[in-house]
Amino acid sequence: METELPQAQDGSVRLLQITDTHLFASAEGRLLAVRTAESLAAVLERVQANDHPFDLILATGDLSQDHSPESYQRFASMMAPLARPIYWLPGNHDDGPLMTEYLHAAGISEAKQLVGEHWQVILLDTQVRGKPHGVLGDHQLAALDQALRQHPERHALIALHHQAVPVGCAWLDQHNLKNADDLFAVLARHPQQKTILFGHVHQEFDEVHRGVRLIASPSTCIQFKPLSDGFALDESGPGWRYLTLYPDGRIASQVWRLPVGQFVPDPNATGY
């Protein structure tokens, strides 16, 4: 089912990506020594304080760490002051049915296909319950194929949680999208420009593979060290990403971060 994609007067689509918030039922909940509600609050304070325009928010998974109803209620209440439509998809730490129930109850849309004048945004579910890796089920691949077939004249931004290509962290790339070839096979059948936006990797990433641009963004809490074979945390601050989708298919993108040292994870952590 299609939902109207908000756009600016010039026809561009201005997005804020928030990802991997890892919230708990308690505001005191910590992930590797970082209070995730506190780091998200600091991110959202900066988002509201700066004047970078955005018309909608994409929340690309792992919104919860303990998959509790209260964590999703917390996410909804913390995001509410931004006063923008929020569209979401589940990550490996999420509980999809609980997300649907509690985010919907908070007035957050379940829409997964947003269609505008020049662009469409498609949100996909790569979650495999109880597993850290991702898979796109047949119904998800079929939904993507149908959406692209419906609007061959519109550029497509495809949002999911897991990485469809290696990001260069061996420990993390084993928890990737296991059937990425199936995804790229669907994309190859359609002529329009396609870009993939994802979370999961807790770091910046922006590369082109098989003619498709793939973009990932920092978490609002802990960061993973890029190009690390074993589990390693990075000192970079929590972050978020703005994207502007222009009518001609160009995408301008910018990552913002909180200052280094404001939220410091446990330096002795060996995993989570």
Automatic annotation (TrEMBL):
The EC number(s) this enzyme carries: 3.1.4.53
Record Pfam families: Metallophos (PF00149)
Keywords, sorted A to Z: cAMP, Hydrolase, Iron, Metal-binding, Nucleotide-binding
Domain annotation Calcineurin-like phosphoesterase: ranges: 14-203
Gene3D superfamilies: 3.60.21.10
Enzyme class: hydrolase
GO molecular function: 3',5'-cyclic-AMP phosphodiesterase activity; metal ion binding; nucleotide binding
Family: Belongs to the cyclic nucleotide phosphodiesterase class-III family.
PANTHER family, sorted: CYCLIC NUCLEOTIDE PHOSPHODIESTERASE CBUA0032-RELATED, PHOSPHOHYDROLASE
Protein name per its UniProtKB record: 3',5'-cyclic adenosine monophosphate phosphodiesterase CpdA
